[in-house]
Amino acid sequence: MHITSKIPLRIAVIGAGVRGTSLARQLSHSQYPVSVVAVGEPDDEKRENFAMEFNLSSESTYKGWEELSRNLHECDAAIIATLDNQHTAPAIACLEKNWHLLIEKPLADTFEDCLLIDNHQKNKKKVVAVCHTLRFMDAYRKLKELPDSGIIGKIIHIEHMEAIGNLRFAHNYVRGRWSKESNNTFLLLHKCCHDIDYINWLIKEPCRRVSSFGSLQYFTIANAPEGSSDRCINCKLSDTCIYSAVRIYTGGQPGEWPAKDISREHTPASKIEAIKNGPFGVCVWRADNDVVDHQTVLMEFEGGTTVTCTLSGYSGTNGRRMRLQGTEGEMLFDEANGNISVKRFADKEPVYIDITPTGAYHPEDKDIVDNWLSSIFESTPVAVDTREALRTLAVVFAAEISRMEKRVVEMSELL
After folding, report:
1. What pLDDT, on a 0 to 100 scale, did the predictor assign at position 356?
2. Which of 133, 281, 350, 364 is the most buried (most CB within 10 A)?
3. Alpha-carbon span 389 to 382, nearest angstrom
4. Mode of pairing for the β-strands spanning 207-215 and 294-301
């Protein structure tokens, strides 16, 4: 698989949203000879903006992966950054054309489709990498280095929290594009597969059994305040409601998050129009959402280590938190506050390590792309290939089986 030719590796991008565009931008910083040669994207504006940024002709732009895979022949690799439930078909089509792949997480939205992609990868022997970003982020690399060094002894228990700020949760998972499972996938897979992948990377032994509990508890019609309306624009409680769309989307700059998400034009008038008629103006208790708003996963690993991983939409801050307890000490990781504390039992005081992020959008994307390209050009290992993604995603699927069927799931049932 070692490549010595100076002819650029020709790469197509399937899905020209935020993630696909960000990953494509990293190609220009690569040490390897690569070029973006095509894009497949059903949204006209996104497709046109991508084509303009990457200097693509109209003949190199396609309205979707089907058209691209059918008509594009001068290509060697593809980045797949479609919605979670739209990875399998384009991945199989691209592998059939003998293209290398970089796939946004998750590998696929069902365990069976993960197996299907893995089998195609083995048959075609192409490089397939999956974007599990936590493995590449500086703070999480440091978090893994510390227990790997033995500083807290053997890990006995981990308590992990994926804390989603309440307003972010309402925006994305109650009113927003990921609010219904049928439009994307179940929330644990969409939001927490990074976390469970990281936990399974952190602990050296394989996961043995899984149990999970969770539900849509609060954002339902049963909890709508008395006197509230279907839409915030004409609700008499709008001035006092925490989740008032009028307050949330007109209280700041129209071109900044979260207001920028609700309309393509960023003017006060366009925001009011979106609140009147669009999904972001619906009462959060009447939004027709169905994904869980909280879920806890309990994992037991070979060797006895236990882990709780909690996803919650009821946090005052955004960011992950983790407590690692070992035989010789304890570590606390706080992404929102930007630090890790290490308290060895033999020491009087903890040590604090700064992990303040840079503030750039997914700076780890450069390392993800470099890792993929290095494997293609130099035959170096892929951080998360299809087999590794299948191993860690199996825990996510097992957790959802447990939640739905109200039972403990043995990992031997899947792997």
Report:
1. 85
2. 281
3. 11
4. antiparallel
